[in-house]
Amino acid sequence: MKHILLMATAIFTLSCSVKLDLEGDILAGEADAACWMTSLPDGTPVARLSIPGAHDAASASITMWPSFTRTQELDIAELWNCGVRAFDLRPAWVDGEMGIFHDKYSAHVTLPAILDAFCLALDKQPGEGVVIIIRHEEEADGNTPEWGPAMGSLLPAYRSRLVPWHEGLTLGELRGKILLLSRNEFPGGPEGAFIKGWTSSGELQAQKGAFLVNEAGESAPFWVQDYYHPDGAEDKWAQVKGMLDAAASAGEPYPLIVNHASGYVGNLPDYRTNARDINTRTAEYVRSAGKPAGIVMMDFAGVERSRGKDVGGLALVKALIENNPRTLMP
């Protein structure tokens, strides 16, 4: 436990001022967003927020080089400081630890260390809240049956911090808490909610067909666009825009929406080319529409350039944060 706490403290020792990559590109600047949730009304439904999210959030620390599994340049602390509040994490049970992976590659951090780090951050910024979406990274542990029991055993230690999902969950209820949504079931769960019907379909009706189930067995609508391997930029943009338009026109009961700007084209994942086109277009569309966007998961969140390429991740984070009204919507 002492080792985990030391790791958690280390995760949040960095700041989000300016960072340079190996080619000297400016990666991240202040998003002026360390406490953006704090300024919003308590009564705002979480489902009506526009929340910046990081796809494979911990992958910046994957040391394989060159790595097609790195979808981020900023670590968890820097993502937090730049305003990211939704984190896609892929835990696997390897060597007796619930480590975080992308595919079979380790991010060199454990899920408990990240949870402890968020608890520390929320102690300092109790007006904020966190959404975590987990998926068992079966490629890393061979889909071991030990994953479920191990997950069910480690989460009760965080129960005071975990908020159960219910239809109409407000920001006031999320403050200082972690909403944990799992794409896989595990004993004793779900703590927040299990996600049923997750899809990578390109059909909007299928994307609207998922739902959340909480510990009480209550269900709530959940829409997800995770069309991660499009034919090209226009194909992917049609998916992102389609879900943004659906989010803008959604009525009660409001669905929790996860819209992936992340993705790649070609046989070898090229996340940067997709990010250059889709992050920028999504930011512009969010600003022009001015409607709730839901959780937008992106690659290279909080950075404008990565490995010599424009990726537009800071612009998209800022556009989503600024899209949240400071007064309660009717």
What does this structure look like?
- There is one protein chain.
- By secondary structure, this protein is of the alpha/beta class.
- The chain has one domain (2-319): Phosphatidylinositol (PI) phosphodiesterase (TIM Barrel), CATH 3.20.20.
- The chain is 29% helix and 21% strand.
- It has ten helices and 16 strands.
- The protein has helices spanning 2-11, 76-81, 111-124, 138-141, 147-154, 171-174, 204-207, 233-249, 271-289, 313-322; strands spanning 19-20, 26-28, 50-54, 86-89, 91-94, 97-102, 105-110, 130-134, 178-182, 193-196, 210-213, 219-225, 256-260, 294-298, 305-306, 309-310.
- It has a nine-stranded mixed β-barrel. A three-stranded antiparallel β-sheet has the order 5-6-7.
- Helix 1 crosses helix 3 and helix 9 packs parallel to helix 10.
- The longest helix has 19 residues, at 271-289.
- Residues 13-31 have low confidence and may be disordered.
Mean pLDDT: 90
User: In order across it, which strands form the biggest sheet?
Assistant: 3-4-8-9-10-11-12-13-14
Which superfamily, in CATH terms, is the homologous superfamily? Answer: Phosphatidylinositol (PI) phosphodiesterase
How many structural domains are formed by the residues? 1
The tally of helices reads 10
Secondary structure class reads: alpha/beta
Sum up the overall morphology in one term.
globular
The biggest beta sheet is recorded as: 9 strands, mixed, barrel
CATH topology-level name? TIM Barrel
Q: What fraction of residues sit in β-strands?
A: 15-25%
CATH class type:
Alpha Beta
Rg estimate, integer Å: 18 Å
The low-pLDDT segments are: 13-31
Task: Please tally the β strands and state the result.
Answer: 16
What is the succession of H and E elements?
HEEEHEEEEHEHHHEEHEEHEHEEEH
Report the end-to-end length measured between terminal Cα atoms. Answer: 46 Å
